[in-house]
Design brief:
Elements lengths: L1 E7 L4 H10 L6 E7 L6 E5 L2 E5 L2 E10 L4 H12 L8 E6 L17
Antiparallel strand pairs: 1-5, 1-6, 2-5, 3-4
Helix pairs in contact: 1-2
Length: about 110
């Protein structure tokens, strides 16, 4: 099993969710976050004063998928989240040792 985490632009969340659903991947957690990478924020004007916005709004999505679904998951996220401009985001994949469904006690693949 793998944990797939993706940082994407907020307005792409619905597109990514639909793409994942079309790829047969169900279950996702979405969290509103702020951050920056090479994009390094931007300058805004407020009441005549210029200030730097260091942290940009992003959405972090987390999914736990079987090993056989990882590539489909990554491709769905990449296709749906890509705008071709700086700040499109990143995808991280890591191993998951164990998953337990609290309600039933099912473990690992059965718990996903």
């Amino acid at each position: 099993m793998k944990k797939v985490e993706a940082i994407i632009k907020p307005f792409k969340l619905d597109d990514v969710r639909e793409a994942l659903s079309a790829a047969g991947i169900t279950g996702m957690t979405a969290i509103e976050v702020k951050g920056f990478g090479r994009q390094k924020g931007h300058t805004e004007l407020y009441r005549g004063a210029e200030y730097v916005v260091d942290f940009l709004p992003k959405v972090k999505i987390e999914l736990i998928v079987g090993d056989d679904q990882v590539e489909d998951c990554i491709n769905a996220i990449m296709t749906a989240a890509r705008t071709g401009k700086i700040g499109d985001g990143k995808i991280f994949v890591s191993d998951v040792q164990r998953v337990v469904r609290i309600r039933t006690g099912e473990e690992d693949e059965a718990a996903i």
